[in-house]
Design a protein that fits this description.
The chain is an alpha/beta fold and about 450 residues long. The protein has 20 helices and 11 strands. The strands form 2 sheets. Strands 1-2-10-7-8-9-11 form a 7-stranded mixed β-sheet, sandwiched between helices. It has a 4-stranded parallel β-sheet with strand order 5-4-3-6, sandwiched between helices. Helix 10 links the parallel strand 8 and strand 9. Helix 8 crosses helix 9 and helix 11 packs across helix 14. The chain is globular. The mean pLDDT is about 95.
């Protein structure tokens, strides 16, 4: 079986550096043949014209002077930027000789978008692919995984039941041809977001300054943690703009880092009841809790026709922006938006400040969730939409915030022990090494090394 090789990290950051013939071919395939393996070269934050995909959140919604800018993941292959992590993890494992198409089965443990990305990437690269996902995730996720040609195992529980996934992984690993590509510990996930997402965000804030939006730097990067891959972009932004605050978000119903808490929640894609191995907690400035029902109710406002009409007619949101919000917003994206507003108020940001976040996926993955919300709470009315905008957006409080003090950062790091040392076989020495930022810089520096090795193999 031949090996399929895709883009380097640099080419995912700047697709204009892909050779012209390949770039032209893949641009044409984006819509015409989305299952073609050459679409690996469309894994990037830029469109066919090399413009960054982003959305400036209207101040009619936020009711603050601070600019909130969201990178849009909806336009990646599979409809989520998590496909970038899935490809990077697969690419690095193949480059290291750990996996081989036709011989190994790839296993992607996930609570959603990484699994969808893995289903698409694994089968495109010629592998038998198996995705592990909690049984209570949205039906749209299950259908997408199977539509890409992957097999599916549903594990017990909901978003926060990650241990059940790990238990199944350990069982499957008894077969030597099963290879687990675990996003929660794979450094390729961290490297993709540090290098590609982080540098894209930096380029975006500079471009926006030329358009009169912001001052050309990033005041904060706000991201909920699932695998804690996306929040790695904050590490790069803080290197380029030292004033940047890195703000992590957790579900209020599952406050693991906040107070060693636990519980079930429905912000799909985040809050997996443990601190992931690749999360640079020693560099995080604050943690904010977000209520899962607030996220779902606001997503209904953004996606329901009654809500869209309310946003445009009552609040003056531009119609094209309202349409964009209705398609590129998912539950975790709304969570990120709420976190941005709370962070802006907590830090007293104002005019000229720019907060960057990510809209991970689109509303197409949550139709069944919205149906259940309607069944539980009734149809959306204008009165409900107004109430939600007023209390959840305009009057959002900067509460349930925990500062990244020295003791808190050390506690966050210590929490990794119980999952990774006791259960997953990591060493205490490895854990202690993560307390130093020089250790993380060593991981970051491998981007260039891996790119050179990949170019030599293609």
């Amino acid at each position: 079986m031949r090996f399929i090789w895709g883009p380097t990290y640099e080419e995912m950051l700047h697709p204009s550096k892909i050779d012209r013939e390949t770039r032209q071919a893949t641009t044409a395939l984006r819509e015409k043949d989305p299952l073609n393996w050459l679409n690996l070269y469309n894994i990037c934050w830029r469109d066919a014209s090399d413009q960054i995909s982003y959305l400036v959140i209207p101040k009619e919604l936020t009711n603050i002077d601070t600019e909130i800018v969201a990178l849009v993941g909806r336009r990646f292959p599979t409809g989520s930027h998590k496909v970038g992590a899935a490809y990077s993890v697969t690419m690095e494992a193949q480059l290291a000789g750990q996996i081989e198409p036709g011989r190994d089965t790839l296993i992607f443990p996930s609570t959603g978008n990484y699994g969808i990305g893995g289903a698409w990437v694994g089968t495109r690269m010629g592998y038998d692919t198996l995705v592990l996902v909690p049984e209570q995730m949205s039906q749209e996720r299950f259908r997408l995984i199977e539509s890409y040609g992957a097999r599916l195992i549903k594990t017990p529980g909901c978003e926060s039941n990650i241990k059940e996934i790990y238990d199944k992984c350990n069982e499957l690993k008894r077969n030597p041809t099963n290879h687990v590509l675990n996003q929660f510990e794979a450094w390729a996930n961290y490297r993709f977001h540090y290098y590609c997402t982080g540098n894209t965000a930096a380029e975006l804030v500079r471009e926006l300054a030329e358009k009169g939006i912001g001052k050309g730097s990033c005041s904060a990067f706000v991201s909920a943690m699932g695998s804690a891959g996306t929040i790695a972009a904050g590490d790069r932004l803080k290197q380029l703009f030292p004033e940047t605050k890195i703000v992590g978000l957790e579900p209020e119903q599952c406050p693991t880092l906040y107070n060693n808490g636990f519980g079930d929640h429905d912000i799909q894609g985040i809050g997996d009841k443990h601190v992931t191995w690749i999360h640079n907690v020693m560099n995080m400035d604050a943690l904010i809790l977000i209520d899962d029902m607030d996220c779902k109710r606001l997503l209904q406002v953004m996606t329901d026709p009654v809500g869209t009409e309310c946003l445009t007619q009552r609040y003056g949101v531009d119609e094209s922006t309202a349409r964009a919000l209705s398609s590129v917003s998912g539950i975790s994206g709304v969570c990120n938006l709420l976190g941005c507003i709370k962070a802006a108020k907590y830090y007293n940001f104002g005019s000229g400040d720019v907060i960057v976040t990510v809209l991970t996926d689109g509303s197409d993955r949550y139709g069944s969730v919205m149906e259940q919300l309607r069944a539980d709470e009734g149809e959306l009315t204008e009165a409900k939409a107004v109430e939600r905008v007023h209390w959840l957006l305009h009057r959002a409080k900067p509460d349930l915030v925990q500062e990244g003090t020295v003791p808190n950062r050390q506690r966050w790091l210590n929490l990794k022990y119980f999952t990774w040392v006791e259960q997953q076989g990591k060493s205490v020495d490895e854990l202690r090494a993560q307390a130093s930022q020089s250790w993380w810089r060593d991981q970051q520096a491998l981007v260039q090394v891996i790119d050179e090795e990949l170019k030599a193999r293609r």
